[in-house]
Write a structure and sequence with these properties.
372 residues; mainly alpha
Length: 372
């Protein structure tokens, strides 16, 4: 999963430290405009625009958020603020994921990575953003099927995060620039687990998810439960998968989780439907699919949605309805493929979403209904 950047509302000047230390400068960021410390700047135009874009992200208004981030990028360039540019670029990349536009998402993320990789990592805020960007780039490449490169990037993100953890002596609830340290760590572990599972290394994937589950952040445990439920489903352990899903009934109440909730809930519902389908409960599977806000999910997950509906209709003998769903799924993925770098399309199709290869979705209409 890709994480967006929150703005730091009060930031230290690049050439000096706050007179009272970095920790209180971070506290000042949380207190926003109410606190001013010696050696810290009040928010610049880029910070204000980044904050504005973040508010639109939480509401799911991706296009307006993108406009704010584009303006923030311009402001940061005018201020020669490299860290700000990287954050604006990272956020811009995030806004293209709801449209499954991997080419643009990856391009902006790589631009952010290029800036940060050449920067001085003595600043905790810089190193934190570097770890986040490594994780985001790795997550995108994992989704695109470049699993070995994704694994190395996410492992490097974990190393950078661990170095920072030792330097700052954090606990999971410590925050940098509005993001909890534990939450970033869990996202890194979750992305690494997903990549391992896609490579067939189930045991390493499960070990990573168990670390998330045991990490102390209640709001991230359901993210781990979804991964564990998927792993159990792929292993044919339906009862175990169902138990994990029954416990994953919420995705956290903190503001930073609202967008994550918007992303996770449809995946959770589709995974529920798959478990019900495998258990022979077709009507319940269709009811669960009906709870998904179709228009609020990306074209890629819309394709999966129609594929699962097709599977369900096929199981109950409604072949005409199944064919319609398969054709819709294939058309959606064809559209997504146009926004994938050409050299990555074959690997993209072979990579799984919720344990299903995209190529199975892509070929469903022609393959599924021709079998005896």
């Amino acid at each position: 999963m890709v994480l967006w950047f929150l703005p730091r509302r009060v930031r230290c000047k690049p050439t000096e430290q706050c007179g009272v230390g970095d920790s209180l400068c971070i506290l000042a960021a949380v207190l926003s405009f109410l606190v001013f410390l010696p050696g810290c700047d009040i928010p610049g135009q880029g910070d204000i625009l980044l904050d504005e874009g973040q508010k639109h992200l939480v509401k799911g208004d991706w296009r307006t958020a993108r406009q704010s981030f584009e303006k923030a990028l311009t402001a940061y360039k005018n201020d020669n603020h490299g860290l700000g540019e990287a954050r604006a670029l990272g956020n811009l990349g995030y806004t293209y994921l709801p449209a499954s536009d991997y080419t643009k998402a990856l391009s902006y993320t790589e631009s952010a990575f290029n800036i940060l990789s050449k920067s001085d990592m003595s600043s905790p805020s810089m190193l934190f953003s570097y770890a986040m960007t490594l994780n985001n780039k790795g997550a995108l490449l994992s989704d695109l099927g470049a699993l070995n490169e994704a694994e190395q990037l996410i492992l490097t993100a974990r190393q950078a995060f661990d170095d920072l953890w030792r330097r700052i002596k954090w606990n999971p609830f410590s925050r940098v620039d509005g993001i909890s340290a534990g939450h970033l760590k869990n996202l890194i572990l979750d992305n690494l687990a997903t990549t391992y599972r896609r490579k067939g290394d189930v045991s390493s994937g499960v070990a990573g998810l168990l670390q998330v589950f045991q990490g102390g952040l209640v709001e991230d445990r359901d993210m781990a439960r979804i991964g564990l439920a998927l792993t159990s489903l792929q292993a044919g352990k339906l009862n175990e998968s169902r138990e994990y899903l029954e416990k994953a009934d919420r995705f956290g109440d903190q503001p930073e989780n609202q967008t994550i909730q918007r992303v996770l809930t449809p995946r959770f519902r589709m995974l529920q439907a798959l478990v019900l389908l495998e258990s022979g409960l077709q009507e319940e599977a269709l009811t669960t699919l009906g709870k998904i806000d179709h228009d609020a999910i990306s074209p890629e997950y819309q394709a999966l949605f129609h594929y699962v509906k097709g599977e369900t209709f096929l199981t109950i003998g409604s072949n005409i309805k199944a064919l319609e769903e398969y054709k819709t799924a294939k058309a959606l993925l064809e559209d997504v493929l146009e926004r994938i770098p050409e050299e990555m399309r074959s690997r993209f199709l072979e990579t799984t979403i919720l344990g299903i290869r995209r190529v199975d979705v892509f070929e469903g209409a022609s393959r599924k209904l021709k079998r005896p």
